[in-house]
Design a protein that fits this description.
With 424 residues, the protein is α/β, with parallel strands linked by helices. The protein has helices at 12-15, 35-41, 110-116, 127-135, 150-157, 165-174, 193-204, 233-254, 263-269, 291-302, 324-338, 364-371, 399-406, 414-422, and strands spanning 2-7, 23-27, 30-31, 46-52, 58-64, 73-75, 141-144, 179-185, 209-216, 259-261, 314-320, 342-347, 378-382, 410-413.
Amino acid sequence: MVRIGEIGRGSVAEALELRIGTRILRVNGERVRDSLDFMFRTAEEEIELEAVGPDGSHVVYEISRDPAETLGIVPARDKIRECANECVFCFIDGNPPGARAPLWLRDDDFRLSFTYGSYVTLTNLGKRGLRRLVDQRISPLYVSVHATDPVVRVRLLKNDRAGLILDQLGELLDGGLEVHTQVVLCPGWNDGGELDRTIGDLYALGPGVLSLSVVPVGLTRYNIGRPVRLLRRDEAVAALHRTGAMRNRARRERGHHWCYAADELFLIAGKEIPAAGYYDDWPLLENGVGALRALLDAFEAGKERLVPVPGVDRVRVVTGTSMRPFLEGMAPDIARGMGCPVEVTAVRNRYFGPSVTIAGLLAGTDILNAVGDSRRGDLVLLPGEALGGDRVFIDGTTLAQVEEGLAPAVVRSGHEFVETLVGA
């Protein structure tokens, strides 16, 4: 069942006088399970909707529409399928005590995987759930594999169903679906020979496995060493070597590299970020694979269009500690283009602890502490990825509160500002 959350203006639904809060029970005689189900079942030109209005009235609507005509029903948000695992490396277990409620949501929802590219483990899907994915062509999916050895995966996810992963992937691929896969690399758990096995097993499943990304485990001061630790430099170097061997083979046999290491793995290993060719057609930017190279290349392409901004006599660029050397490398070009000094401030993460070095997880309070001495004439550029869609930092501090705390300096999201200046 889905509940109507919005009605589009000038739509079929408005003409039928459907109301917000109406529950859609069946479409063309088939039970509707969620909004994704509703989307698939209402793709036809002839539709029969069985519904219950907000007043409890039971109505059947028969609809005949032109393919270009919008139905105009926006379902209310579905209840998210939560994770049934207790992964030994779960980042949520690393949340600070008292973190706001959204940070504790353990989603493992194939609908979010299909629509937003989030990774799922498939452990909360039985035969019927897998069959639905195939029947409705829900593809591509993004699957967190971590290990293909059943014993190792069960140990990592603490879920007996975790050992079914190769059978589950086989069923999806046999049904014609495609998947992107991921390994979160945990030293002593799924690295070394286990990583070789996982890479080989996934590649052997065929071209329906579109990619494999290898991402180093991220831990905070609240869960580091309990029981997983961070990768050492030599371990990151070894992992790059293992992924590199498969990349060469995939390039020869399939025409693309298939296996990609996340940016953070190169940073831990102390290796240079690869050139754009490493990433083929950039399939995994949202998973931290190639995002740094994309930023560096975009800046290089647009830096000549930087211009002075009236009233600004200093630029302060805020970032996480891992990005500091890259932004310091950009600083002379920014200063030259904008005609004023540029200062890069790498904020130490006190909210999660110093093991968290990326800009996207900076708290508003940590930023305020780091650049609270800003003055009139300063332009403070904040990392756009640290702000959610609601303009709130991860600790609940709003952008408006940061702006107020840094006044009279001018505060901007760095991404939006640079896009405006250089057209990136």
